[in-house]
Amino acid sequence: MVDTDRAKELKAFDDTKAGVKGLVDTGIVRIPEFFVTPALIENEFSAKNLNSCSDIEVNVQIPIINLEDINGDDFRRRRIVEEVSEACKTWGFFQVVNHGVPQHVMNEMIGGVRSFNEQSNEIKMEFYSRDNLKKVKFNSNFDLYQSKAANWRDTLACVMAPNPPTNDELPEICREELLQYSDHVRRLGHTIFELLAEALGLKPNHLLDMECAKGHFILCHYYPPCPEPNKTLGITKHTDPDFFTILLQDQIGGLQIYHQNQWIDIHPVTGALVINLGDLLQLLSNDKFKSAEHRVLSKHIGPRISVACFFTTQFQPFDRLYGPIKELLSDENPPLYKETTVRDYVSHYNSKGLGAIPSLLHLRLNSSI
User: Fold this and answer.
1) What share of the chain is helix, strand, coil (3-state, %, to 5)?
2) Beta bridge partners of 95
3) Closest Cα to residue 227, out of 169, 293, 301?
4) Across the strands, what pairs with 308?
5) What are the distances in angstroms from CA 185 to CA 15, 109, 268, 307?
6) pLDDT tens across 76-97, in order?
7) I need a surface site. Which of 112, 140, 244, 350 has the fewest CB within 10 A?
């Protein structure tokens, strides 16, 4: 049954085109009901779950991999590949340092996102849209009308490859920052694809030849300070529906990964970028690598700013089918998933909203996952 009051509240919020920051700017001290994440849905806010780690394991962290001299000699590269392989099997997440993206480029990208969100509403509203055909759009919660609870964030989304927006389509206030960051992160993405292929025991160009790196889009997230951070999330727990994501986060923190039945903080490391595998790479690897659940807590302080670059071809008219890579299969390791196009997979993922049943399950050949 449709909750008509909730539907009206969602539409009224959406119609302001001012996002969560617009609510904060009004001086609210209580969050609207549709942002409240019911404890019964996800049990997010039990004392056990809201704390990121137990006292015993408070120092547990995702691996940090140093890419320095990656092409220096074979021994160094093999060592990096081994570290990537272990991180992908165990965590589905790792951080990289000495990755080739200059610190000033990352700082300017964070600053550009802040500038976009903190400019006048009149200018931001020009970009506000839920039209998936638009290469550049600003909104709050892509799944606002599908999710069980809205998240405390606003997002500027830009499809940057293979056919980037024209300069006029990009917001003037952060145009140069987006173009510069996109170029650097594209090159890093190619390196990561090579390392992932080698970590699977394949030739470096295997995933590139499968056109996995043909497209990427950038999500610029802005999380305003929340007056009731114990009642809502910055992002509901989810996996990413792409090959992998390169994430730039500021120093505020709040990103967590679900690992060995507990939530673990991914502490910001100066100069580092976070890499997390998406569902499509778990599918390609036939479960050798994992796409891990993660979330973002809301906080009293802020804004928190992050920039996620998704490597995916969902916005391109590609009909290529992706399934478990044939070279990885054998009688002892039969395929676990049906094939899918990227667009079909993402369409299914988006139809449910974040926090729903994992989307990979609907492709599983044997549902006892």
Assistant:
1) 35, 20, 45
2) 64, 274
3) 301
4) 219, 247
5) 34, 11, 18, 11
6) 999 999 999 999 999 999 999 9
7) 350
356 backbone dihedrals φ, ψ, rounded to 5°? -85, -175
**DSSP per-residue codes, 9-66:** HHHHHHHH--HHHHHHHTT-SS--GGG---HHHH-TTSHHHHSSS-STTTT----EEE
Please provide the size of the chain in residues: 369
Nearest Cα neighbor of 62 from 264, 234, 215, 233 is 264
| pLDDT tens for each residue of 146-177 | 899 999 999 999 999 998 999 999 999 999 99
Distance CA 35, CA 281 (A): 31
Q: Are 233 and 39 in contact (CB under 8 A)?
A: no
Nearest to 323 by CA among 342, 337, 343: 337
Which of 194, 187, 243, 183 has its CA nearest to residue 80?
194
d(CA 340, CA 123): 39
C-alpha span between 355 and 293 (Å, rounded): 10
Q: Report the SS3 class of residue 310.
A: strand
Element of type H or E holding 97: strand 93-97
Average pLDDT of span 232-253? 97
Q: How far is CA 257 from CA 60, 75, 264, in A?
A: 11, 31, 5
Starting at the edge strand found earlier in the chain, the sheet holding 262-265 runs 233-238, 294-297, 255-259, 262-265
**pLDDT > 90: percent of the chain:** 84
Reference 42, options 150, 152, 148, 154; nearest CA is 148
Neighbouring residues of 220: CB distance < 8 A, sequence distance ≥ 6 = 112, 113, 116, 155, 156, 157, 158, 174, 305, 306, 307
Burial 80-100 (b: 16+ CB within 10 A, else e): bbebbbebbebbbbbbbeebe
